[in-house]
Amino acid sequence: RTTQPAVALSTPTATRDGHRVKLMANINTLADAQAVKGSGAEGVGLLRSEFLFLDRTTLPTEAEQVTIYQEIAAAVAPEPLFIRLLDIGGDKPLPYLKLPSEANPFLGYRGIRVLLDRPELLKTQLKAILRVSHQYAIKAILPMVSAIAEVQAVQEILSQAQLELQQANVGFHRQLEIGIMIEVPAAVNLSDRLAGVANFFSIGTNDLTQYVMASDRNNAQVAHLADAFAPAILRNIQQTVTNAHRAGIPVCVCGELAAYREAIPILIGLGVDEFSLPVSVIPQLKQLIAQIDGDEAGAIASAVLNLDSGAAVREYVASRFSLPL
Ligand code: PEP
Ligand code: MG
Asked: How does it assemble (predicted)?
């Protein structure tokens, strides 16, 4: 076995046969943002904005949000920053919002559902993002989308936010790009239509896995089922990528699945364009991707869709992949 020469962190990420993929960073805080430069990440593919709302007793104002998004964007610039709109509920409470207690929080009031129920909260966040997008490369991502009407409702509130900024003579980017988190089976089923109302998709494999497999992501008793390598999940990713590419929009995978080395040949073989991951794994994945052949990845991806379990998928990749994983 020959040792591969190390790929410099500053080299664009590509497979052995020259297929470009983008590695971006998942971040929660300004401190995380400060670690992005020099990590090899081409920007931030997922800022979980809810973390900026924790550790407080009241909602941040528009001005406060502008300040923090600006600090984060400045740390990442000139690379882009994708800000996911507030994704609370489920396993992420926000005590001062007094969310109702629910029998099934993961099937309840969370993500975009909360934002559309509290349009002032959504509009304030959109205005802050719009203002920062005047100066920095920013995109927004909608969490927990399960219907076309939800995206249309956000677009309406976005128009109001733009109008109000315009009337106040505040600068903003006129064509803010909006991406959709694909993390609910309904969104996968609708991905042909959602692709018509989004600029990109970001697949959240953590939630997608729990919802497709009907297995709570935090319940040890069903952890064996909540396996993102399960062929059922990979087929959902395949369907999403196919529909996105038909519509000409890119697909990012930002769930934990992408941080597993065995997942990379599969996801590249399925046509995933971008990965957003903790910065700590980026250098090794960049190295790994440089050793992958696109055709081999395609063959691996088609084969694993017909295996019997997530465990079988991992074993198959390890056996087929000619380089150490
Ligand atoms: C996901 O669901 O995969 C995801 C990236 O979002 P979070 O883990 O924040 O729910
Ligand atoms: Mg999620």
From this structure: Homodimer. The dihydroxyacetone kinase complex is composed of a homodimer of DhaM, a homodimer of DhaK and the subunit DhaL.
Which of the listed residues 48, 91, 184, 277 should we mutate to test ligand 1's pocket, taking the one with most ligand atoms within 8 A of CB?
48
254 Cα–ligand 2 center, Å: 9
Among candidate residues 241, 205, 230, 250, the one with its CA nearest the CA of residue 312: 230
Q: What is the ipTM of this complex?
A: 0.98
Location of structure tokens 């700590």: 280
Atom of ligand 1 lying closest to residue 254 CA: 5
Span 143-158, pLDDT tens digits: 999 999 999 999 999 9
pTM of the model: 0.96
Is residue 227 classed as helix, strand or coil in its secondary structure?
coil
Encoded tokens for 281: 């794994």
Residue 78 to residue 196: CA distance in whole angstroms: 28
Distance in Å, CA 111 to ligand 2 centroid: 9
From first CA to last CA, the distance across the chain in angstroms is: 13
Ligand 1: distance of its center to the CA of 67 in Å? 25
Nearest Cα residue to 105 out of 121, 94, 118: 94
Cα 137 from Cα 73, distance rounded (Å): 8
- Tallying the residues shown for the chain, one arrives at 325
